[in-house]
Specification:
By secondary structure, the protein is of the alpha/beta class. It has a six-stranded mixed sheet with strand order 3-8-7-4-5-6. α3 packs parallel to α4.
Length: 209
Amino acid sequence: MQKNIYLFSLTPSEGVTHINSLHVSTFTPDIDFKNYDFLIITSKQILEVLKNYDESWKSLAVLAVAKPTADAVVKAGGKILEFGSGYGDNLAEIITSYPQEKRWLYLRAKEVASDFVSTCKQNGYNIDEVILYETSCSHELLHVSIEDDATLIFTSPSSVECFLKHHDFKEMQNIIVIGTTTARAIPYHVSYKIASQPTMQSCIQKAQE
């Protein structure tokens, strides 16, 4: 294991040191899945929360934010409508290619980086939103010691923000981010690299180069 590569993410991965920078609180509001034609899922964490519901959600095709999320939906027993390129803004293009009378349910975190739902609603699309979890900064960040020449991987804006509450970026550290949305959370004076694809594995490959 290359111990000088740190992954700041909810999900661990082989070959790097995983730091869980976020604490997750989940909610289980009542949902009548029969009222909808499609689901929108932009986080694998949603699938963990769906374990608290009956299997009626599996009858609805899912629009996933990216292929890794789509693969997780299929593994959980769901079915895929389409999947995007990894960015929330791309989902608006997909949704607006379907008839306006279709009913969508976006299962989401309390805070999300993309405002694609507003874009779709302005174009007359019917999208309901239900919050199934929220994140806060993990106490694990308080106790981690990171080398000044380490490589740091961030997979969400909130993981960057939580890191910076307890640590500073060092000049010799290599910063890898999963995409442009996460990059916007990096301080302007800090250099970083964006993964070739908006996936965790692509981030790790970039870090190992």
